[in-house]
Amino acid sequence: MTRRTVPLAAGALAVLTATALGVPAASAAPTRAERPDVVQQHLDRLVAEHHFPGALASVRGADGRVRDRTAGVGDLRTGREVPTDGRVRIGSNTKTFTAVVVLQLVGEGRIDLDATVERYLPGLVRAHGNDGRRITVRQLLQQTSGLPDYDDVLFTDEQDLVDRAHAYLEPRRLVDAALTRPRRFAPGTSWEYSNTNYVLAGLIVERVIERPIGEEITRRIIEPLRLRDTSWPGVGDQRLTGRHPQGYVAVAPGAPWIDVTEMDPSLGWAAGQLVSTPGDLRTFFEALLAGRLLRPAQQAAMMRTVDAPGFEPTGAWAYGLGIARHDLPCGGHAWGHGGDIQGFETRNLATTDGRGAVVAVTGLPTSLEMVEAVSDSVDAALCAR
For residue 10, what pLDDT is reported? Predict the structure, then answer.
């Protein structure tokens, strides 16, 4: 998988038809007398052609203006509208927040990027060739550790997306699950996405500062940037509060969407637990690229990339420390991450010249074509003139 907190079961899920949604394809999106811009056109297609229940976007264009857009419905049962800039679970975008906290601590001299995991978490990573004495903090953040992904152990069937939605999974249990598998490659010799890396990064933060990682993300990032709709769910908190659409998954070819808005995000923890809005997430990435969160040395380290084959099904991608660089189809490049968790997928990119785009959909894609359509909508938003 790419940056998912929960897998798509190797793409085995099939595209939902409009019949499976219980509504004709023509009525999947609200009737619009006008399609005012490229962003709106792409959101409408995500609903009408790719059958997502709803879509939200927040875009800052080359003119500096912010435009928020929605399409589809926010609740398939009631038909209520998608709230503009509503709250969603942002999944693996959490990794970028975690990486920022680690790098801030590096800048403060409290964490060494090239120290081993063993130094901070002695004896924790020792099984099946996985050895914390040979893995550095930098390799965790860059996804070059070779550690297996706990997702592949805990979520082996599409039905697990529903059956385990309310499971509380402690961080150490996530790590233990991963360590039942052999290492994927020798540390530093290849690149492969693994959520395990960022759970360990979160545990290192907690060992160093002796406070919860969610509290540090809040104190160091959320509060200074005034991200009013971004929050770290507390232990056992399964609700999605405030203005939000419902989130859905489908578990078999042709199956209906199942509402999983209420779920326990502990399966993501420092790799995928945060709740935010498209607008807040865009603000975060814009601030990060503007140098407002990291000292210059740590900013440079974050942007030093390696090739990241398979990070997305299409396009050229390279991975830094918790952030990825993408070559835009209109020229130049942008930076972002993205995330998937039960009920929601988000994709986002921002540029160093101030443009930014976040698109969220309210159902996990059931095909690579659906994943590509969401990513393409972000490219189109940034390339629109």
Answer: 31
Q: How far apart are CA 135 and CA 113, in angstroms?
A: 11
Distance from C-alpha of 198 to C-alpha of 68, rounded to nearest angstrom = 31
| Long-range Cβ pairs for the range 327-336 (8 Å, 24+) | 328/379, 328/382, 328/383, 329/379, 329/383, 330/379, 330/382, 330/383, 334/382, 335/285, 335/289, 335/303, 336/285, 336/378
CA distance between the termini of the chain: 33
> Can you spell out the DSSP letters for 299-343?
HHHHT--EE-TTSSSSS-EEE-SS-EEEE-TTSSEEEE--EEETB
Q: What is the mean pLDDT of the chain?
A: 91
Structure confidence by residue, pLDDT tens digits, 121-148: 999 999 999 999 999 999 999 999 999 9
Beta carbons of 131 and 145 less than 8 angstroms apart: no
Which two tokens mark 78? 């009631």
CB-based contacts of 182, cutoff 8 Å, min separation 6: 128, 129, 130, 148
Backbone φ/ψ region at 112: left (φ over 0), alpha (ψ -120 to 50), beta: beta
CA-to-CA distance for 36 and 233, rounded, in angstroms? Answer: 36
Question: pTM for this structure?
Answer: 0.91
Distance CA 370, CA 257 (A): 15
Radius of gyration of the chain (CA): 20
